[in-house]
Amino acid sequence: MNILLTNDDGVFAEGISCLAKALKKEHNLLIVAPDTQRSGAAHSFTMYVPLRCKRVELKGLEDVPAYAVSGTPVDCVKLAYGNFDFDIDLVISGINDGENRGTDVFYSGTVSAAVEAVLLGIPAIAASNISSNCKYGDDTAEVIRQIVGKLIETGISKNMLLNINVPDLPISSLKGMKITKLSAQTYENIFDERIDMRGGKYYWLPSGKTTVCGENDDNDERWANEGYATITPLVPDLTDYKSMGYYKDILGDSLK
Fold first, then answer.
1. Average pLDDT over residues 83-110
2. How far apart are CA 142 and CA 164, in angstroms?
3. Is 128 a member of any domain?
4. Residues 6+ apart with CB under 8 A from 235
5. What residue numbers bound the domain in which 147 lies?
6. What crossing angle do the helices spanning 14-23 and 137-154 adopt, rounded to 10°?
7. Residues 95 and 19 sit within 8 Å (Cβ to Cβ)
8. DSSP one-letter string for 90-128
């Protein structure tokens, strides 16, 4: 299978190398990823400045073509799709250094790269290790390798979009996998105000967030915290179909 690997942590991040090393014996790989850290880029893409794309070599992956792009994760998927002689069967974005659970999916460049692939008609996986100080990246990569193998055995839909979060544990310590829904989260949105050396103000966004998660809730937050790899099927279509009839009734279809 021809697999495009990308991420939002940058082409030289450990996660994408772990993933490539786990997959390269069984699949043809192409790595196209940002040339620097682009976490939180969401679904942004570059319009008003040119993109630069440079061939790079990753340690231990000299036999895998890798490119650094001066853009966002979505740019990387678009560029690989339209400008490389590589017929992509699957896109895997990650392994992200840190979780992408709950409403993280709206901000995540990792997840958005996978969404972009599905918009282009290519099945995709967004893969994350839930720790921002990952110790078991190779184990997380092995989890993804096994999941990909199972999906290939049964056939992969072109609309497949999976968000996978793996606890930072040895694979022997994982309890298994759970197909589950996204959790609900709120973020700290009051910026830290600071003063630079010239007396000017600048701001840092705090990284804290609160997850609304009951003891028995069936969601990605709970199950990953309990030692399971979580898999959440997503769809790019944000239409609230259940509400369409309600708004048709109260708003009608005419203007005065």
1. 96
2. 13
3. yes
4. 159, 161
5. 2-183+216-251
6. 50
7. yes
8. EEEEEEEES---GGGGGT-HHHHHHHHHHHTT--EEEEE
- Residue 241, judged by CB atoms within 10 A of its CB (0-12, 13-18, 19+), counts as exposed
**166 within some domain:** yes
pLDDT tens digits, residue range 4-53?
999 999 999 999 999 999 999 999 999 999 999 999 999 999 999 999 99
AA identity, residue 212: V
The candidate with the shortest Cα–Cα distance to 191, out of 201, 176, 179, is 201
Q: What is the CATH number of the domain that holds 50?
A: 3.40.1210.10
Q: Is residue 54 part of a domain?
A: yes
DSSP state of 16: H
Residue 77: phi, psi to the nearest 5?
-65, -45
Q: How far apart are the first and last CA of the chain?
A: 57
Instruction: From 107, 108, 97, 188, select the one nearest 137 (Cα to Cα).
Output: 97
Contact 147, 176 (CB under 8 A): no
Helices (H), the chain: 14-23, 73-83, 109-119, 137-154, 220-225, 241-251
pLDDT digits (tens, 9 = 90+) for 116-138: 999 999 999 999 999 988 899 99
> Helix or strand or coil: residue 15?
helix
- Give residue for tokens 């804290």: 208
Residue 46 is assigned to a structural domain of this protein: yes
Number of domains in the chain: 1
